[in-house]
Specification:
With about 375 residues, the chain is an alpha/beta fold. It folds into two domains: about 290 residues, 4-Layer Sandwich (Nitrilase/N-carbamoyl-D-aminoacid amidohydrolase), CATH 3.60.110; about 45 residues, no CATH class. About 25% of the residues lie in helices and about 25% in strands. The chain has eight helices and 14 strands. A hairpin with a 6-residue loop joins strand 9 and strand 10. Helix 7 crosses helix 8. The protein is globular. The termini are far apart. About 0% of the residues have low confidence.
Length: about 375
């Protein structure tokens, strides 16, 4: 049975920008600190490792290329030794970790980056990763689109854990998918907190918590919690006013990293945050009865739904450049491969040609 009470934490920590090793060291220190503060789950911001590309629309194409190469070299991948180091820190701290990171593709021949969340269990083992399904606006020049298979949840001793990245938290069907997968605790990662001036394309870095009046993050996190009856740990990026080494101030034109992390209960009540304008670890204690009480009134997976009226189709496939075996027929049915025909023929001691004839006859049979 999942825990009746637990502590969630948002690590609103500044990365060592574009510096993989230094960011790794800092991450491990703050994982340890979160453990010391009693956290059962700690969430780090969107692409915290090694920083959000705030330069994405502020530099020339040659400079953009230089920075993309640098970002590739300082990002994480699933076979990265840095994950082992992170796993050791997580195990020592005895908590779960949801880490926002730039992820370098592990596919042979690819150097594509993804906007991802890496998940670790209490033993420091990787549970999986989620890649942002649709990068937003100019982000599409930085990251590839995530695989449908990465939209997933994970069983933990706190409950079922899931997560989404930035504007994915506004994607109605993706939220519904995680809800249908039984999500109970939601890790939401963001690149900062902002004041919105009329529309999403006109925003500036938040100066203080008063930005809740226009920043879409604030109502989104409260509504996500209420409509899914989830405990929400929303972690937003923070960077100080210091210009990172090897950058100029005008290159970070989209720097909205003022923080804004918050922890929300299933009724949409903000129990901690938003923390704006400073680095820190935000924590809050939760009781499972907070979820039960909300579900007694509004249960998105029970009495307050109508699957007969509205339903959802979830694709859990992985996007691959090459498909194995024989090409599919036009009617969608796959032919038996040569290897499969040979294996069946050997097992039953009959000619391969006979197996192939029978398989073809089956495919040609009328519906």
């Amino acid at each position: 049975m999942p825990a009746e009470s637990f502590t969630l934490a948002a690590a609103q920590i500044e990365p060592v920008y574009h510096d993989k090793e230094a960011t790794l060291d800092k991450t491990c220190r703050y994982i340890e600190k979160a453990g010391e503060e009693g956290a059962d789950l700690v969430v780090f911001p969107e692409t915290y490792f090694p920083g959000y590309p705030y330069w994405r629309g502020s530099v020339s194409i040659p400079r953009w290329t230089e920075l993309m190469i640098d970002l590739q070299k300082n990002s994480l991948s699933v076979d990265d030794e840095a994950l082992d180091v992170l796993g050791d820190a997580v195990e020592d701290a005895d908590l779960y970790l949801a880490l926002g990171a730039n992820e370098l593709s592990e596919r042979p021949g690819s150097e594509t980056l993804y906007n991802s969340i890496f998940y670790f269990d209490r033993d420091g083992a990787s549970m999986g990763r989620h890649r942002k399904l649709m990068p937003t606006q100019e982000e599409r020049a930085i990251w590839g689109r995530g695989d449908p298979a990465s939209l997933a949840t994970y069983d933990t001793d706190l409950g079922t854990l899931g997560g989404l990245i930035c504007y994915e938290n506004h994607m109605t069907l993706s939220k519904a998918a995680l809800t249908a997968m039984g999500e109970e605790i939601h890790a939401a990662v963001w690149p900062g907190f902002w004041e919105q001036h009329g529309h999403p394309g006109d925003k500036t870095r938040a100066e203080d918590a008063g930005a809740v009046e226009t920043c879409d993050v604030y109502p989104a996190m409260r509504e996500y919690a209420f409509e899914t009856q989830s405990f929400v740990a929303a972690c937003s990026a923070y960077m100080s006013d210091d210009v990172p080494e090897a950058f100029s101030e005008d290159e970070l034109g989209f720097n909205v990293a003022s923080g804004g992390s918050m922890l929300v209960n299933p009724a949409g009540i903000v129990k901690a945050g938003p923390l704006v304008g400073e680095e820190g670890i935000l924590t809050a204690d939760f009781e499972r009865d907070e979820r039960r009480a909300t579900k007694a009134y509004f249960d998105a997976m029970g009495h307050y739904t109508r699957w007969d009226a509205v339903s959802l189709d979830i694709n859990d496939g992985t996007l691959d450049p090459v498909s194995g075996g024989s090409p599919p027929r036009r009617d969608g049915q796959e032919r038996l491969s040569a290897a499969e025909s040979e294996a069946i023929a050997d097992e039953h001691d009959v000619p391969i040609a006979a197996i192939e004839d029978v398989a073809e006859a089956v495919l040609e049979r009328p519906e």
